[in-house]
Amino acid sequence: MRPLAVRVRGLTKEYGAHRALDGIDLSVPEGAVYGFLGPNGAGKTTTLRILSGLSRPSRGEAQVLGVSVAGGDDAGERLPAAALREVGYLPDVPGFYPWMTAREFLRFSGRLFGIARQELDSRVDALLDLSGLSGVRGRIGGFSRGMRQRLGIAQALVNAPRLLMLDEPTSALDPMGRRDVLDMIGSLRGHTTVLFSTHILTDVERVCDTVGILDSGRVVAEGPLSSLTMPRGVHRFVLEVSDGADRIESALRERSWLAGISRQGNSLSLTADDGTAPQREVPAIVSELGLPLVRFETLETSLEEVFLGLVEGGGGGR
What we know:
alpha/beta; 6-stranded mixed sheet; 4-stranded antiparallel sheet
């Protein structure tokens, strides 16, 4: 089992009578690209602010890279400076000095960490290349939203962090901007632990290996993406032959594991209460009937189906 970059237990945040986080638990493995998924207002930003040391929880415990974050409003310390040096953070609305170039801004950020000049020059060159901004000479004030987001991620990486936290990094971007940012995030897999919040399901499916789903300040599901989208209870399959689908349908209806079947042309959709019997018996039936098999595969539950099944409306967080 991989060690954890982030460990949260019973984390609660209250603003007066309003409870933004309601005892959440999270486990972010080192090296993972972790999608922190939830509707707007679920509490994603509040969680990231606590983990980055910008806010304190009311109750509960959190560890970032093995270092404890404050245990409450009136107890403990925020994330120590030594730990902060190993964390990169991009807020949902990053700020920049518009008169600077991308290179100047990254150099400025690197100097705040005390990075030696020669090392910083090399690192800035690499980050400009990674973010696709190496050939851009204009001032940041003239950048598109996508360019700003890519620069923001590069700035969050300037200290070579072990953990990178991104708050809605693809929000409000056009399709090309989203693609560029997601490609940048995906390229970090295995080198840097990435925890990024989003409400966009397709972004999570594209780059994440681990997912936590937050709703109204509560974690309603967490785990590897593959385990969340595996069929649960009812298993689904699709079977396609070049001809003779009616004969296969008749043979399959005699099977005790079959829960449902529908046919469209030479393609059949099957549901079963057993995940292994169809994989063993369907190819055998096709072979016995002497029919050419075009396709037979298990259908996973989509992340959208999982998400909608778990999340009952938004609200309850910040």
